[in-house]
């Protein structure tokens, strides 16, 4: 099988955002660490599509904020379906393209936070852009609390069929149908394996 992009640009580790850089600028509270630990243990299960975790130990009286960096940390290690590299190292996901809009009152159970992730394909004709977007969307929808609404889009002017891909990624019925396809689920599980290490 011929690859769409046999020689992708690979970013060096020094060019990638890290939690360590952020900690130098801002000290994280122990509650934020608890959220990250909870997300990591919940997200990095053997099967990232297993929704059977019924242990809901969070109390409603303690609201712990999730920021763009934590969302980025959830999706950065996802591997590219064509290359044995992460979406982060290929520059497909970038911290500056993760947007979070949280409600003013986090204690209101009806308040929704909105997450927008803009993907930058490695080539403008990437045939797997929809699969990559689906992987990012599924990862976030299953990892984040139910009060988060996730939208994944192709960044403007980075793909020749961005409108079509965005339409597919935003259509809940198409996404649900895609997740019933066993071949596609196998690809997504392979992409998510790097998240369980």
Automatic annotation (TrEMBL):
It comes from the Eukaryota. Gene3D superfamilies: 6.10.250.1280, Fe-S cluster assembly (FSCA). Pfam families: FeS_assembly_P. Residues 70-152 form the MIP18 family-like domain. Residues 1-34 are annotated as: Disordered. Signal peptide: none annotated. Keywords: Chromosome partition. The keyword Repeat does not apply. One of its GO terms (biological process) is chromosome segregation. Belongs to the MIP18 family. This is MIP18 family-like domain-containing protein. It comes from Hyaloscypha variabilis (strain UAMH 11265 / GT02V1 / F).
